[in-house]
From TrEMBL:
Record carries keyword Cell cycle: no
Keywords: Nucleotidyltransferase, RNA-binding, rRNA processing, Transferase, tRNA processing, tRNA-binding
Family matches, as InterPro entries: ExoRNase_PH_dom1, ExoRNase_PH_dom2, ExoRNase_PH_dom2_sf, PNPase/RNase_PH_dom_sf, Ribosomal_Su5_D2-typ_SF, RNase_PH, RNase_PH_bac-type, RNase_PH_CS
Alphabetized PROSITE patterns for the sequence: RIBONUCLEASE_PH
The organism of origin for this protein: Pseudochelatococcus contaminans
Keyword tRNA-binding set for record: yes
GO molecular function: 3'-5'-RNA exonuclease activity; tRNA binding; tRNA nucleotidyltransferase activity
The family this protein is said to belong to: Belongs to the RNase PH family.
Biological processes annotated in GO: rRNA 3'-end processing; rRNA catabolic process; tRNA processing
Top enzyme category: transferase
E.C. number: 2.7.7.56
Identification of the protein by name: Ribonuclease PH
Length: 242
């Protein structure tokens, strides 16, 4: 199948143009503006000098996340969820995913009885907002922990590994990496993969939109995801080294 079968003209195993811009929020302990093509997410990490009530007295901290999409992040304006009084089921699912992904690579004992809150605000959406958020959130978290380390607030190294995420899917019968909206909205299969820098699997979300997908297809998608996440981790390393 030719490369031109993808709306973006990318090769099946090609990521969108990805950039990670650090220190974009003046007051946050860590921040990153992540761009996956036309999907742009602002990630900030805020340190709170208290653990959640249910963790108090246990000598360990917590990392959690909140996710929101700005009203004109999409083609048509969407209503702010705050006006409805509670986040949607989709929003709750995504912010829990981001939190789980980050906690998997943090030594919570090392940060003490504190909480780090990662806010992921989608400025512009073109597919893959949750995977972009996780990838950018790691950079914001890294910088927050580095801020704490510089002030002797950590008992030991708290960040154990990188974590990044990418979407894969089957589009017009072809396994492809990093779906944009044009592909995501019509893909036969859509999956999100969250992996550590060392290759550990944190989470796999996969859905057949049409016919069920096979085990072989799942493994092909996982291979695409591993290659894509390896590239994303390299970009994270370059970002935090600059």
């Amino acid at each position: 199948m030719s490369i031109a079968t993808r709306p973006s003209k990318r090769a099946p195993d090609e990521l969108r143009n990805v950039t990670l811009e650090r220190a974009v929020a003046r007051y946050a302990e860590g921040s990153c503006l992540v761009r996956f093509g036309e999907t742009h997410v602002l990630c900030t990490a805020s340190l709170e000098e208290r653990a959640p009530p249910w963790l108090r007295g246990q000598g360990r901290g917590w990392v959690t996340a909140e996710y929101a999409m700005l009203p004109r992040a999409t083609l048509e304006r969407t209503r702010r969820e705050v006006t409805s009084g509670k986040p949607s089921g989709r929003t709750q699912e995504i912010q829990r995913l981001i939190g789980r992904s980050l906690r998997a690579v943090v030594d919570l004992q090392a940060i003490g009885e504190r909480q780090i809150v990662i806010d992921c605000d989608v400025l512009q959406a073109d597919g893959g907002t949750r995977t972009a958020a996780i990838t950018g959130a790691w950079v914001a978290l890294h910088d927050c922990l580095a801020w704490m380390q510089a002030r002797a607030m950590l008992s030991k190294k708290a960040l154990k590994d990188h974590v990044a995420a990418v979407s894969c899917g089957i589009y017009q019968g072809m396994p492809v990496l990093d779906l944009d909206y044009a592909e995501d909205s019509t893909a036969e299969t859509d999956a999100n993969f969250v992996l550590t820098g060392s290759g550990g699997i944190i989470e796999v979300q996969g859905t057949a939109e049409g016919a069920p997908f096979s085990e072989d297809e799942l493994l092909r998608l996982l291979t695409l995801a591993r290659n894509g996440i390896s590239q994303l981790v390299d970009l994270q390393k370059q970002a935090v080294a600059s």
